Amino acid sequence: EFSKLWVRSLTGELDIAIMEDPIYFMPLYRELLRRRVPVIASCQNLETLAPNQVKKKWALDFFKEELEILSRCRLVITVSREEDVLLNNLGIPSLYIPYYPGESVLQRLLAVRENRGKTVKDGFLAIGNAKNLQTREGMERLGGYWREKHLEAAAGKLLLGGINSAEYFTPGGFGGSVELLGTLTDEALDGILSRVKACICYQQSGSGSLTRICDMLCAGVPLLANTYAARSYYNMKGVI
User: Fold this and answer.
1) Does the pTM exceed 0.85?
2) Which one, of 35, 34, 29, lies nearest residue 12 by Cα?
3) d(CA 180, CA 171)
């Protein structure tokens, strides 16, 4: 609906248009094509590859539709190595530009890296936006496993938090071996990153790439990840 408003705001001649995930802005996308304006798609991920975005019975149909949309773009920019390979193999011009934090965030992470040299390490951190289904399910599995295997005695507590996490995880839900942090301020997160043994990323599916892996590496925090979560970061120093 917003893109219909944007169509009416188009004035003059355009040399090029850069759109993030054009599948969400079809009226604007179609108008740009009608005007023969070259479109560059900037995709955080292929939306139809994310199970929480599309009902399973429609996933293949919408995947084909998304590929058709992207095939009419002049270029597709992706932060995922795997999706870049997929698009190129299908004859869709794409460019892989890996995520790297902006200057203000980078300076915070480098300060954490320096502080880690002065702290005693304890516990493991799992953090993410719990509204994302793949992230939330991964955190649930990880918290349940920590409780089931009594890993607090062997490895320390699992600290579990992030945006929207308080909405989905209840206190005591994973027993005493898991500490729920909820949504964290930048200052609180930086303090935790300065003293945890490592950060854990666990997913059973997903698309795009996990930007927090790069953030943890910049901060000097060892990163433990399973195969799905580590996509685009395989064999990178610091990723275990």
Assistant:
1) yes
2) 35
3) 7
75-78 sheet: strands from edge to edge: 17-20, 39-43, 75-78, 94-96
Helices (H), the chain: 2-9, 26-34, 59-71, 81-89, 103-116, 133-148, 151-155, 165-168, 186-193, 211-218
Q: List the structure tokens of 96.
A: 């892989």
pLDDT over 80 (residue 52): no
The pLDDT of residue 238: 92
Residue in the structure block whose two tokens are 């970061």:
233
Reduced to 3 states (helix: H, G, I; strand: E, B; else coil), residue 235 is coil
Q: Is 151 left (phi over 0), alpha (psi -120 to 50) or beta?
A: alpha
Residues, the chain, total?
A: 240
Give the separation between CA 127 and CA 130, rounded to whole angstroms. 8
The pLDDT tens digits of the residues spanning 135-190 come to: 999 999 999 999 999 999 888 999 999 999 989 888 778 888 899 999 999 999 99
Which pair of structure tokens corresponds to residue 102? 């902006």
